[in-house]
Amino acid sequence: MFRLHAMFRRVFGLFQKKTHEAEMAEEMRAHLDGLTERNVAAGMSPEEARYAALRTFGGMAQLQEQCRDQRRSPWIEHLLQDLRFGARTLRKDPGFTLVAVLILGLGIGVNTAVFTAIDNLLGRTLHFAEPEQLVLVTNVRPSGVLDTLSYPVYERFRDHAQSLSGIFAFGQNNSGRSLVPSGLGQNDAVAVQCLEVSGNFFSLLGIPASSGRTLTPEDDRKRDPRPVAVLSYAFWQRQFGGDRDVLGKTILLDKVSFQIVGIAPRGFWGADPTRQPADLWVPIEMGPILDPTRSDLQRGRNIFVMMGRLRSGIKRQTASAELNVIFQQWLVEVGYPAVNRMNIGKIDLQPGGAGRVDRHRGETLASAAILMVLVGLVLVIACANVTSLLLARLTVRQRELAVRAAMGAGRSRLIRQLWTESLLLAAAGSVSGVLVLWGTNAVIRHFDMGFAIDLRPNGSVLLFTILVSIGTGVFVGFLPAIRFSRIDLVSALKDQTNSATGGSRQRLNRALVVLQLAVSVCLLAGTGLFVRTLQNLKNVDLGFDRENLLVLMLSDKNHDANRQVNLVKDALPALEALPGVRSVTVAMGGLWSRPVGTVISVDGYQQQRSEDMSANIILSGPRIFETMGVPLVRGRGLNFADVFQTSAQMSQNMTGAAVINESMARRFFGHADAIGHRIRVWDGKYEIIGVARNTKYASLRENSSLEIYVPYFDSRSEALGMLIRTTDHPSALVSSVSAAIERINPKVRVMSAYTMEDAIDRAVAPERLIARIAGGFSLFALLLACLGLYGLLAYNVAQRTREIGVRMALGADARDVQSLVVKQGVGFALMGCAIGSAAAMALAHIFTSKLYGVTAADPLTFLDTALLLLLVTLLACWLPSRRATKVDPMIALRAE
Amino acid sequence: MAKEKPELVYGTLDMLILKALQHEPVHGLGIADRIQQMSDKVLRVEQGSLYPALYRLEAEGWISAEWGVSENNRKARYYKLTAAGRKQLSAETDHWSRVSAAINLVLSKA
What's the mean pLDDT in A31-45? Predict the structure, then answer.
């Protein structure tokens, strides 16, 4: 117990330094005076008395030092001393400090930036009650894709599943709506993101309201729901300033009256980390009231995400099996054709503790891994560079360190001191790294990557930064500290720079430079591969003509199937009449819009069990092949009659017309003619009237999928997309086209208009991002490596002045001397190139899936990289080699 | 002054200081005097070891210090024993008697 007191006193002593010093000095003075007085009393003269007293007392300074040690804990003292001294030393050499801090800042900063981005993309923490019990209900298609299910299926599961204590559903996407807080006296509309959830959403996730209440199954009664809403905490704060008064008040959501019944807790923003958080939640059954033309609750569109909670003791596999049985029963009951039932997919339960699993998670993980590797390499280079800088600087400070050692500093003390300096550098670097973070944020926002990254730092990111900084400081300081703490006092004090003892230091420097060169090569090669991948993707043959093609997405708030048909009937000729327009069609489905697909069946084709019969659908209007530029290899395309007649006669069970692509024809009919065969898509029968060339449908990398062009209005889709082929400059026509459409029907708005080229650009956004990032890093790395090489060569030339002098005296001319230096530099470069290329090939091999059109060992890329490195090396060699030629043999030989 | 071997056993200075302070507060110089006096002039405290010991004892919390006025009207820092110090003193005294008895026992054997 008393030991603790003692420790406290010691730590406390740190803060009472000034008083203690003054008191101690005074006390000793008093003691001295006392002794002196006694001596005087004993008969000595005042001076003699004083001297005698001093002699008895002993050395004041040493005594005070001893006393000081008694009072405070020495190691904290020393640490503070080291920090203060380190800071002072760094301040004395601002050039070095600035450069080192900048380099480290960049290295640490980009690492933090990438980590933050990845942390956001992959792992947001969701706080549900007992997350290990939660499962995500998915429909695993034969192609392996995890798909969602429809509302009737959800209702069936909810009412009949025994192995789950509850199932809840929520919309895949938020719907953008307008909110008017009329009950609060405000009349301005606010755009909000609204999500429909089942009544048991909150209770099954275990989320209580922070004020008021959350939704209940009573609110979500079938066909008679309550118009109630729960606000998110963030929205409540943002819009209403956290005013409790909003509870119970009415709001108008898209002109429908709702009552706010509760606020969700802080930090809860739903169960889907792949989507933007919703501002408010409403019952699913309110959906049809908000959108009266919607029929998806009955028709079984797969737009709901389902999650459930396992009963205790039940395993996921058991529950999956039960759900599959229920699912198949339901399919039979609703009359799903047997042949489709086999291939609609299997119900599988995924772990749901982290909310909805992104179906592209694997891809995202791979990209994330690449980025982390790239950015890690950058940090390695930064560290190596700063280490050489520190080594160079310490060579100059050898005398000072020798003096310290001579005065009694032990080796560990010196090491600690040197290490403190590098830790200080790293700390300063991480502060500047935060600035880099902000910069990166701005850059990413500017380039509009197509996905949202929240770069605001949070706890785990801060921890990561601190760890990286400490690691950097330790790593950077390690070599210099070890090297320089072992000082040969004699030669250091005499200021002799003996080249013999510098041997190991030379090796170290060389190794560092080669390391930097190797990493640069690695990054350069990686960049080369990614850039080639990007180019290949951008230039890939899409199967249709991408130039001069304008895409329009239209929306009609009060959607009506008939009105849509009439609108299109009027719009097509009106738009075609516009100047600059070659042809117009309606279309939906593909790279440039959203994918449309379903499971099909082919008359006369015997399906294998679990054969994947899913196909991509392109909803087509007349003249689509002409507009898109897709060649037809057999038969004809869809004409006006095919497209418009079908919708009227659909109910009469007539056979429509459809065009398939080559892959599909080959697969189902081999070399026989596909024309005339029948297929079933959705609830319709179609006769194949033509075969078209393959196009890229879902991604630029795909090989070939099954594509079917069906009449647009057979899908009863609410969205309306148009393709317009122009003679030139498609974006210039947007205004005239929009005006024309408005003339036909003012209620219809153009939601978005973009060119096909834009759409393709967006499709390669991830590849472009990686190529750009890798490019940026490579440049940085190359610069650092070049500087490192230059430094090394310059130092070598200075070291070898005498040798060069001798050579020149013996007859070597300027060229010979220059080639000496250049050969050395090139030697380093080749070594670095070899190591770096090997590393790059190995890494690229791991990430082959990300490449396109290039192999991991693409010779052209590596050749280019080597040449670039050689160029940079020659540049780095230039100055030192010139300086070497300027050596005057007479002066060089005399200097020693 | 002839310099004798101080004859102070290593590690006992703390104990002697605490003892010197047993009855009343004393300042630094006075403590050295008192130890000398109490030991019949046999034990002489090295001035150089006095203050480090005093400061150590203060840091441990066994003595506390206050400024006061000395007998010849000078400002001096007076040390006094704390409650913890008293406990420490009796503990160290016990320890010393045990150790010295044991040493005596060893030496008394032939």
Answer: 84
